Amino acid sequence: MTRYRIASLVLAAFGCFSSVWAAGRQLTGVYAPAATPPLPVEEAAKKMTLPEGFEARIFASEPQVVNPVAMTWDERGRLWVVELYEYPLGAAPGTKPRDQIKILEDTDNDGRADKVTVFADGLNLATGLLLGYGGAFVGQAPHLLFLEDTDGDDKADKRTILKTGFGLEDRHELLNGFTWGPDGYLYMTHGVFTRSKVRNPDDPNDSGVLMTAAVARYHPRTKKFEIFAEGTSNPWGVDFDRAGNAFVSACVIDHMFHMAPGGIYQRQAGTPPNPYAYELLPSIVDHKHFRAAYAGLQIYQGNQFPSEYQGIVLMGNIHDSTVHQDRLTPNGSSFKDSFVRDFVRANDGWFRPVSTQVGPDGAVWIMDWYDKYPCYQNANADPEGVDRSYGRIWRIVYTGKEKGKAVPSYPEGMNLKKLSTAELAQTLAHPNSWQRRMAQRILSERQDAASRGSLLKLMNESADRDARIAAFWTLHTSGQLRAEDLRRAVSDRDSIIRSWSARLIGERGESSSEEIDLLQSLADDDDPSVRLAVATAIRQFESDALTINTRPQETPPETFGGPLATIFRKKQSADDPLIPFMLWMDSEQWFANASQDVLPWYAEHGLENTPLAAVLLRKGMRRICDAQKSEDIEFAIEFLGGLPAEAVSLVAASLEGLIEGQKGRTFTPDQSASAVLTKLRANPNKDVAVRAQELATIWGDSAALEASLKIVRDGTKPPQERIDAIKSVSQQKARAVRETLAKVISTSSPEPVTSAAMTALGSSDNDELPDITLSHWKEFSPATRRTAAQVLSSRSKWSQRLLSGIETKSVSMGDVPPTVIRTLLTSKDDYVRNRARKIIGKYRETTPDKAKLIAQKKQLILQGPIDLQKGHEIAQKTCFTCHKLHGEGADIGPDLTGVGRSSLDALLTNLIDPNQIIGAGYENVEVTTKDDRSISGRMVENTDNRVKILSLGPKEEVIPKSQIAGIRVSEMSVMPEGLEQMPDDDFRNLIWFIYSPPQDKKPMSVEEERQAFLHADK
């Protein structure tokens, strides 16, 4: 029920969906502009609600800083800030851009900035900033810049483009959140609706690295750029815990992710660049906040707060004017994230926390965009939509019972750059993570061999865990780590160091027999994080990258087979949230390119007796099919026939993988493969027998086909068994199949069975289908009628019969989904399109003025009785065929729980005008087949071999590339227009049901919410 589009947030960074501003209209509701005027900083501080013992102190405010979007510190504790004046449109052509970088200095260390220096100006849509290696790394799409001050006057006088190709499509999802990682890389994040192909500007042959929603990293010495982990929505900022685990907060979808290296995670939209993971990793949250616009995640590791705050998670919520406090709990090699409380509640609608970071003082610093509007789109039509007068930097300090006591903004006299190498090594033991990270960065720049002794001493003799870990990281990033250090580290008493010994073996890329032996010893570690790190290292050896599309096979299974097999056999690995995924990603290319080696390796290592065996075989068999090598598929069938008779779960899983791999394509096996399937069809285990028959049917075995058709015809069989049989016969073009499916439609069958038969017949060019369908139209359930309308609209000649039915009133307009109406009205067939406009053209004439209609509909829903139960029933018939809300519904469109309903204005605009802005990945994609069939919906898979389309229902279509005549990305979203034309009472009930949170979490009743809107409008 929402538009699948990119719109919202307070600045070029914070993804969430919201309403689109219409000139002259005032946003209202929970997410309306702040109703109060901006507060002076002193009053704003007093209004904030903080935990006991904490105080909010202002470090800098307007005019010292305006529109701050990124901040970082130098070695002296001076704060550097990017001011984003040009957000969101960018500078007008021919004008000097106004974005700039300022240095804010507290010269007397009283906790407040008193000196401002402009380091660089003339920037345009700059959104990222980090210092190091003698300059400033600046994110200004399409470039990653390096700005240098060569004469020491705090003014940039040299600019270098390090990388280029960063996208600018969505101005609130540009590259951002620059952070130094424990491995010495510069980390950055990037949103889902901005597409980048990052490349070396000096190399015309560089094909680039594809980056959509992702965490990426760049090495300042090697210039290597790669995707660290893919997915989420619009992550804004990345941080690392004490063990070096990466975390991001995300908008719209779940708000917290542990980003393991090489992980591919759930996305707000689109498909991941790598199509062969076959699953997406989930978030780690166990809760949802009512409002979902997050930015600036930070894991507190400072020394200014009480010890119980160590490791807490802080993240800003732009729409809620709040900084939330969460708690991480270990969960195998990953975590669970739980809500604790609001750490900062501003009680001021202007407060927009963009970034939250631990500073050199150990306190928490919050960068506040400070704007009355929560959503960036106000600026698109309203010159005053972004306030360019405010900006604030807060420090949250702990004073305990000493209210008002002085808390300096940095340690007195601090200048880490002036410290000796030995002194910097000692700083790695500092209780504030900011000091440790800064010392590591400087030592990494120096590459001083003299640091090795101090670092080893700290690692070997210190009792402080954080100091030992920091010393180990710094040995690597400063170039002082040797093979003997790794040999000691693999047996270290600390699991974090053991884990990083595996990670650093992968980072170093030296795959000698000694390194492989070290990985072998770590693969049997009882700590799941260590085993995960071994899998990560193997991934790097195989590909020289963490997340990639495809790669040539360079390492046969036997090279890393030992460590991988050890992890597989570890019983605890099966239940881990990450290890099974990473083991598959290590194995994926073996199945694609060396399946006749990997399957014997599988058997030789006894992996069929491991809990993970079924997972590996199911995905492996599908990957073999996707590689489309007939000899490998036949070898896989032979291997399948040789599995132990008692291994029924493995056989069933293998058959599942082969069935999934055959969707959209067919393969004719040789005689021996047919014999294996014949044997398996007679297996006493029902799961094996049913899957073997389904696969044999797909492959055209006549006996299996007849057996499946018998099930389809048998009305005494359970509906799901008949549906599975229908799916298995749907790829066969035999006349018996068409006749059987037509009979199902013509006779009384359960609605899901009839709809499945209708969908299956849609893939065949059956001239009799329209007559059969229309003659039984009134006997169909409403759901079957919707399916029938979709099927009939998929071919021009069928569309003509459907239009005749509409014209003669034998088909009611209420039976035809809006998506079908749109298909008919925009058909590429001139005759169908013109006839549709003649017959149903008035269907769209009621919405010539969208803004006026939205205003009218708003008044309608603000008056009259509300029945949430009826609203729920309507949502089940309309919205939930594509969307989920609080766990109920389908996954075609975004989850409505966190998207598109931020206010009544947002919800109404999204529903009535769904095509105003369409996010990449949610366009309506129209696939035309060579036999003149048309399939439309959201594309969720696009590989070398096939595409997968999801449409209303939900309905899934897999089309082989070999059968595709054309693919067209429509200018319209998958979300249809016209839903507002339902009866007024239904519309009102639906809107209030969608807008309201679950009844057990409602802060106020629906009627109280409505009265609040009525009051706001006055």
Class by alpha and beta content = alpha+beta
CATH class of the domain at 41-398: Mainly Beta
Radius of gyration: 30 Å
Strands, total number: 33
CATH topology of the domain at 41-398: Neuraminidase
Mean pLDDT: 86
Q: In CATH, what is the homologous superfamily of the domain at 41-398?
A: TolB, C-terminal domain
Pick out the low-confidence regions.
1-31, 379-383, 842-848, 999-1004
* Sheet with the most strands: spatial strand order: 10-11-14-15-19
Give the count of helical stretches.
32
Summarize the structure in short.
This protein is α+β, with helices and mostly antiparallel strands. The strands form nine sheets. A five-stranded mixed β-sheet has the order 10-11-14-15-19, with no helix packed on it. Strands 32-31-30-29-33 form a five-stranded antiparallel β-sheet, with no helix packed on it.
